[in-house]
Amino acid sequence: MDYFLTEEQQMIQDLARQIAEEKVLPVRAELDEKEEFPRELLAHFAAADLCGLNIPEAYGGMGLGMFEQALATEQVARVCCGVAVSYASSGLGIFPLLLYGSEEQKQKYLPGVAQGKTLAAFALTESSAGSDASNIQTTAERDGDDYVLNGSKQWITNAGEADFYTVVAITDRTKGPRGATFFVVEKGDPGFSFGKREKKMGIRCSATGELIFNDCRIPADRVIAREGMGFIVAMRTFDVSRPGVGALGVGLAQGALEAAVDFARTRVQFGRAIINHQAVAHMLADMATSVEAGRALVYAVARYLDSGAKDISKVSAMAKLFTSDTAMKVTTDAVQIYGGHGYMREYPVEKMMRDAKILQIFEGTNQIQRNIIGQELNKESGRKKK
Amino acid sequence: MEILICIKQVPDTRDVKLDPETNTLKREGVDSIVNPFDLYAMEAALALRDAHGGQVTALTMGPPQAAEALRELVSYGVDEAALLSDRAFAGADTWATSYTLALGAKKLGGFDLIVCGKQAIDGDTAQVGPELAEQLGLPYAAFVRRIVSFDPESGRLTVERLMDDGYDVVEIELPALITVVKEIGEPRVPSLKGKMRAKKIDIPVLTAADIEADEDKIGLSGSPTRVLEVFAPQPRGQRVSIEGEPGEQVRELFEHLKKDKTLAAKVGAS
Q1: How large is the angle between the packed helices A348-356 and A230-266, nearest 10 degrees?
Q2: Which residue in the set A11, A12, A44 is minimally distant from B189, CB to CB?
Q3: DSSP E strands: which ranges in A76-145?
Q4: Which of A118, A279, B140, B224 lies 20 to 30 Å from A147, alpha-carbon distance?
């Protein structure tokens, strides 16, 4: 369907698709099998100017928005969700800086990411704090001109690969939700190390691991926004990043849909291609309809964000929720249409189904997304009655 | 290093079909692409530029729409481009083409190295690169698979030239021309800034008059070769592979020849 892209948006979409098909497609199965981080592929995205789409031009980026970023992410995810996550996670890592960073911080960290010379990562989750972000145990104590961090972060995307990390830690437990603070921690900071790299069900080429802070000492100018702003920074970050997860879901589901249609046209049973069996055709029709609905939602929400709208929590959560559930359903159905072939690693849909599951879990589980949407509905209704 | 790449816009032969009546390519509805070997030439040129500085200019001879192929190269990072386009150039064979490209290269001027793809996928002659070197009086190496080194002091380029049974290492003094094979390295991807630049870049068009071409040496009339016929080779007959001991193989072969009536049955009887 024509989404009336500008010439520039069309170029971004074409470019991301070209890299995905020429560079990612030939190696996606091998990267998955070997659980190998796609560093070489990320260099192609950097060379193509796709690493700083939503970074302002003043910091070396293209000065565009989440919509353009979503267009690129979708095309990469259509071919490999693992590579797309590695590509997009650096973007998640810099959101706290884009939204709340000081001028000095932006000058220091953003140009490298825009040029693809450095990678970023975002670190909130801990072993006992995921959905319940208020239960964060990592602490940061002021000590003269420094902060000293202690604790660990778990399941951090791009762990070990990224050059710097935006990390939330508790600076004053007595203040509850206002006691958390975001910091930039650089690879090589004293007392900062990495735990083991996790072995995952899907998106296996992306790097997931533990960050360990053992009396990790960083200068006070690494605070993002100011002390106590940690949860606000985290929530605002998720508000703008979730349509990006939506783009991952749309792309992944689109890839699975195309694979399923192609297979159904060539697979013959009972004397005809299975796409001519109504049971299969109806499955494909439902898959295609949800993919298109998800795409329309993600594009609309991303454009709404880029307009500078403030009331974005609800729609942003919807974009993530609907598309990740769609990706799970569509990839599962694609495996079903492939039948026995689909269960074999030789065919692409098995990996797609494994890759899809994480989209319902990370950046807020889909249960949390429903909580957010429910709370916003409650608030909206309350405001109406006054 | 100032580098010129000579490229060709070709029909995407992955889609092309032959008209069985006229034996010509059916070009309607077929996309035009940059000759794939020329993208390898581009990559080799851009890599040399990135390592040693200078500029890469792309040149092609073709109809006005060939400018699109040049724009595509600019999106990959090629610095400048020029189009040789004139009705008088039409119908050129490889010799008239290389004559025209040579004049275009002289007009643009001052290149240390010219890089061409080994051949175009429509004509498949692999002649234009070497002929262009002859027209310009330059040393050349064809089928280069790797650029080993460049010594700016001596102006010498060391390359590996692909041969049927291995490769030659050739040292060549610039200015020179090379044609490259795909082993030279996969082309990079375009960039967003490159695509934007490609949209806006001014591509000068050079006519026969601009390059002061001798009209007896360009286009169809300047072409010493003629294509008499284009035809698809007859499909070969069905092949049978015979295995076993030599004696058995001979007996089986003999049976086949008898069955095909290649040999008379009574010969077999004697």
Answers
A1: 160
A2: A44
A3: 120-123, 139-143
A4: A118
- The CA distance from B215 to A174, in Å, is 90
State whether A161 and A40 are in the same domain.
no
Scan for tokens 């992306």, then name that residue.
A206
pLDDT digits (tens, 9 = 90+) for A89-111: 999 999 999 999 999 999 999 99
What pLDDT sits at residue B270? 46
Name the helix (H) or strand (E) containing B246. Answer: helix B246-259
B192 and A7 within 8 Å at the Cβ level: the answer is no
Q: Answer yes or no: do A104 and A192 share one domain.
A: no
Nearest CB partner across the interface for B189, out of A7, A11, A48: A48
What residue numbers bound the domain in which A341 lies? 231-380
The Cβ of residue A286 has, within 10 Å, a number of other Cβ atoms equal to 13
ipTM over 0.90: no
How many separate domains does chain A show?
Answer: 3
Question: Quick check: A18 and B190 CB within 8 A?
Answer: yes
Q: Are A47 and B188 in contact (CB < 8 Å)?
A: yes
* pLDDT, position B13: 75
Tell me the one-letter amino acid at A180.
A
DSSP-derived secondary structure letter, A129: B
Chain A hits for B188, Cβ within 8 Å: 44, 47
Name the pLDDT band for A382 (thresholds 50, 70, 90): very high
The overall pTM is greater than 0.95: no
